[in-house]
Amino acid sequence: MAAPKVAVVGAGVIGLSTALCIVETCPSSSVTLLSDQFSPSTTSDVAAGMLIPHTYPGTPIHVQKQWFKETFTYLFAISNSAEASEAGIHLVSGWQVFKSTPKEELPFWADVVLGFRPMSKAELQKFPQHRFGQAFTTLKCDCPSYLLWLGKRLKATGIQMYNRKVADLWELHSEYDIVVNCTGIGAHQLVGDKKLFPVRGQVLQVHAPWVKNFIRDGDGLTYIYPGIHRVTLGGTREEKSWSLSPDPGTTRDIFDRCCSLEASLQEAQDIKVKVGLRPSRQCVRLQKEVLSQGGVKLLVVHNYGHGAGGFSVHRGTAKEAARLVGECIASLRGSSSRAKL
Ligand code: FAD
After folding, report:
1. 239-260 pLDDT tens trace
2. Of 67, 70, 85, 332, which has fewest CB within 10 angstroms of its CB?
3. Total structural domains in the chain?
């Protein structure tokens, strides 16, 4: 059979990394990327890009750990290469602090990040309102740079990218053999997934180059994440809010919460505000589906619903989606050789 035609829909971190994994693992396929928005206009551009996993209650922990480990290993290799600055990937050390000792003193990802340990008494003195803390080194993505880098790598493989809004996956059946759905919160409308809901997040990006260590309040709501150019201050988690407009009261609240963790931020300059909708679900939808109309079939692989942790697990879920695409290609080959008999 001719090279199977694969359309990846979506150009956030999930669509770009999934397209790249498909090109790497299924070289016989012809991959096209379709999206109604590209960087810098995706949710992925708004993310802080820290590799600290979010927990998906509907996914076994060993699977989540595997996704995180694959992502960490992939980005760690980039951070150790000459590509690091163009790809916007760097190591960052810091502290996760708690007002009381958490139930789970050792998170499942403790042995994936580097140098995970309880904070010393001397370190905790910096946080008089907190009684317990963990120190570790992890990776951070400068998200727009990383998305550009992924896009550049994809273009170098020869894949085509088109600006197109897909109203119904079925509209792609006459042009493509397999469709990979990486539309993030867009899947709510595209495939009518009622289990998918937005969790609005507002963050500030400030100029405070003296802040070198990350600080994260244990509940994950307040955080200070230094990046290559700017420091991200967060945040909010507003379930089922679709508003993309920044809220000035929330901006003040985020700023005050972050200053109570790191007083020197009072001197931060040039505050920019960003809002994004996390594509949230009990579990990432990572599965095959066969759509069928009037005896005609379209193979679909879904990879969306990464909520608050898309950067932390993107490479792991992209590899699994590419494996599912490989299975679809094998089944197409099987049916075309049966048809010839
Ligand atoms: P998106 O980036 O939204 O991409 C979806 C793509 O699909 C877009 O290109 C869109 O245009 C396209 N699309 C949608 N519908 C259609 C359609 N019908 N037709 C064609 N194209 C379509 N994660 C972390 O791991 N670490 C963090 O520190 C972190 N911080 C965050 C901070 C904030 C404030 C927010 C909001 C999120 C944060 N996240 C973080 C989560 C992370 O941003 C998401 O999990 C991730 O960006 C989801 O990526 P995605 O590619 O699925 O979605």
Report:
1. 999 999 999 999 999 999 999 9
2. 85
3. 1
